[in-house]
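Worked Example 4.2. Consider the chain below.
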Amino acid sequence: MWDPITHSEIDPGELERRETASMRAMLAPDEFPLSKGIELRPLTLGTLALLRQTKNEFLTGTGGKLENEIFAALAFAYIHAAPLAEVRRNVWNENAFRDAVAAFGDEMPPEKLPALIAEILRRLADIGALQFETKPQPGTGKGPTPPGN
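Applying the procedure from the previous section yields the following structure tokens:
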């Protein structure tokens, strides 16, 4: 079978081991730390803005199908782990950002990807729980307003 990560043949036993590790990481992410030395900063309005600026697929809502899940995960991690001044400088230049994310990814082994994706989904689910819907003001004809406290 062809391995899209290494661009080479992969034996079925290795493929099964990777799939098992991925499934276990998704079901029990605490058992699979991202990587020694990689600690993600908390998700903030600032980092959400940077993710939006870079059109990160985890944030843009692609209906559950990511065109490049690996790059989206690495970009999310880069924004939350690399020096913030560097990140802020690179997000405004698409080529510089892509190069920085690729260099960041060179330090992360492929078996850490499932844990990284699980952590991203957990963080995004946490902020999803904080969202609210606006409702029109009854009988006023005015636009939507946030719900009362």
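The first strand starts at residue 2 and ends at 3. Residues 7-120 form one domain. Compare this with Example 4.1 before moving on.
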